[in-house]
């Protein structure tokens, strides 16, 4: 009986694109199901009960989560062609190290989103961070055609969708990021010449329009600064927060959420960081309005961190 293979993802997600590229490299057919992340399907919630995130590859009813883990799974299951990871344990661990560098803490995507959605100092910091990360990768690439040497492999799969996203970000402000890393540009073109990559990447114009719409939304949000007491002991600034800093990273907007438990413990998250958001807010707020209960909580946060 033929394998049943379903990929839950979104067209714009660089993480989903990694999986699409790996499947295309192997020449495996699958069904792609576009998820609406604002209204996740029961199947996604069932198959990814921990993180509830895309992508998820469902192979004969069994889920595999996390894009780089999925790519490794694909490489192991469909090992008849186009190996993505080297067979030598040393080179394999080397490839895993660099894929982990790309994915770690979501730092590169956060910097890309910040570049797109923030302004001024935060945007400049994001630009410098991103250039720094890409230069490290440029150094690792050296004069090799691909990260693993002569053939397209695991690290290339990990990076090319993100690189494509950074190109879209770069178009918005003409930041010249790509000029800083000429070898990566050549590498990216080489990757994009592969059908497995070009057919899997989102359409550049559609991606640009999507980011433009998102940028407009967040600019509108940023202009209406709200400071409100949500509960007795929780403060939201900018009126825009979700349950994790994922949202802050995604939208690159300036938001801080601070929760003070009854025991006085502080939980805080924010973007660019809770404290710099607070500094900006405080500098814009008159001292007379600082006598509120919200401010006393805020200063408790300051004292306890
Ligand atoms: N580390 C994960 C990241 C996946 C991820 O962040 N997916 C986002 C979409 S691009 C998502 O599903 N977000 C939904 C949510 O956070 O609720 C991977 O590599 O698969």
From TrEMBL:
Residues 88-218 form the GST C-terminal domain. GO terms for biological process: glutathione metabolic process. It catalyses: RX + glutathione = an S-substituted glutathione + a halide anion + H(+). The keyword DNA-binding applies. CDD domains: GST_C_Tau (cd03185), GST_N_Tau (cd03058). GO terms for molecular function: DNA binding; glutathione transferase activity; protein dimerization activity. GO terms for cellular component: cytoplasm; nucleus. Residues 3-82 form the GST N-terminal domain. The keyword DNA-binding applies. Residues 238-273 form the MADS-box domain. Keywords: DNA-binding, Nucleus, Transcription, Transcription regulation, Transferase. It is found in: Nucleus. PROSITE patterns: GST_CTER, GST_NTER, MADS_BOX_2. Its EC number is 2.5.1.18. Belongs to the GST superfamily. This is glutathione transferase.
């Amino acid at each position: 009986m033929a394998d049943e293979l379903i990929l839950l993802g979104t067209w714009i997600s660089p993480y989903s694109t990694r999986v699409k590229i790996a499947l295309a490299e192997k020449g495996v057919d699958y069904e792609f199901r576009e998820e609406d992340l604002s209204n996740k399907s029961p199947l996604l919630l069932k198959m990814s009960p921990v993180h509830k995130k895309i992508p998820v590859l469902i192979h004969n009813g069994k889920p595999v989560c996390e894009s780089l883990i999925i790519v490794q799974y694909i490489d192991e299951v469909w090992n008849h062609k186009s190996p993505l990871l080297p067979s030598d344990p040393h080179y394999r661990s080397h490839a895993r190290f660099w894929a982990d560098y790309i994915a770690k803490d979501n730092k590169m995507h956060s910097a890309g989103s910040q570049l797109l959605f923030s302004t001024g100092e935060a945007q400049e910091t994001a630009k410098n961070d991103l250039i720094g990360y890409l230069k490290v990768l440029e150094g690792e690439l050296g004069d090799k055609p691909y990260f693993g040497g002569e053939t397209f492999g695991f690290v290339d799969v990990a990076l090319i969708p993100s690189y494509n996203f950074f190109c879209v970000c770069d178009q918005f402000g003409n930041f010249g990021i790509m000029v800083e890393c000429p070898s990566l540009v050549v590498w990216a073109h080489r990757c994009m010449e592969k059908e497995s990559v070009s057919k899997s990447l989102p359409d550049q114009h559609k991606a640009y329009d999507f980011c433009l719409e998102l940028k407009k939304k967040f600019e509108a949000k940023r202009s209406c600064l709200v400071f409100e007491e949500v509960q007795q002991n929780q403060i939201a600034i900018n009126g825009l927060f979700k349950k994790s800093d994922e949202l802050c990273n995604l939208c690159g907007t300036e938001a801080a959420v601070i929760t003070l438990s009854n025991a006085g413990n502080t939980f805080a998250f924010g973007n660019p960081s809770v404290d710099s958001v607070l500094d900006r807010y405080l500098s814009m707020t008159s001292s007379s309005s600082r006598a509120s209960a919200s401010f006393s909580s805020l200063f408790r946060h300051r004292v306890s961190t």
